């Protein structure tokens, strides 16, 4: 996530559902953020809207 470590979440089939950038300071984890807005994730490839995924279960 912009050169920093993070987690990439997919829907199990392939499309990206969200990312969680990790904020480190001096070797300590200071924050975990969540980005699930499909418009902000499109540069990562196919995206699935989290709301649609939750309502399809």
Mean of pLDDT: 91
Low-confidence stretches: none
Shape: elongated
Structural class, by secondary structure, is: alpha+beta
Detailed description of the structure:
The chain has 57 residues and is an alpha+beta fold. The protein has one domain. It is 18% helix and 35% strand. It has a 3-stranded antiparallel β-sheet with strand order 1-2-3, with no helix packed on it. The longest helix has 6 residues, at 50-55. It is elongated.
What is shown here, in short?
This protein is an alpha+beta fold and 57 residues long.
What secondary-structure arrangement, pairings included, does this model have?
Blueprint: E1 6-10, E2 16-25, E3 28-32, H1 38-41, H2 50-55
Antiparallel strand pairs: 1-2, 2-3
């Amino acid at each position: 996530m912009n050169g920093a470590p993070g987690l990439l979440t997919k829907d199990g089939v392939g499309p990206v559902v969200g990312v969680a950038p990790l904020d480190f300071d001096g070797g300590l984890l200071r924050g975990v953020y969540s980005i699930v807005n499909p418009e902000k994730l499109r540069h990562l490839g196919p995206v699935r809207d989290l709301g649609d995924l939750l309502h399809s279960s």
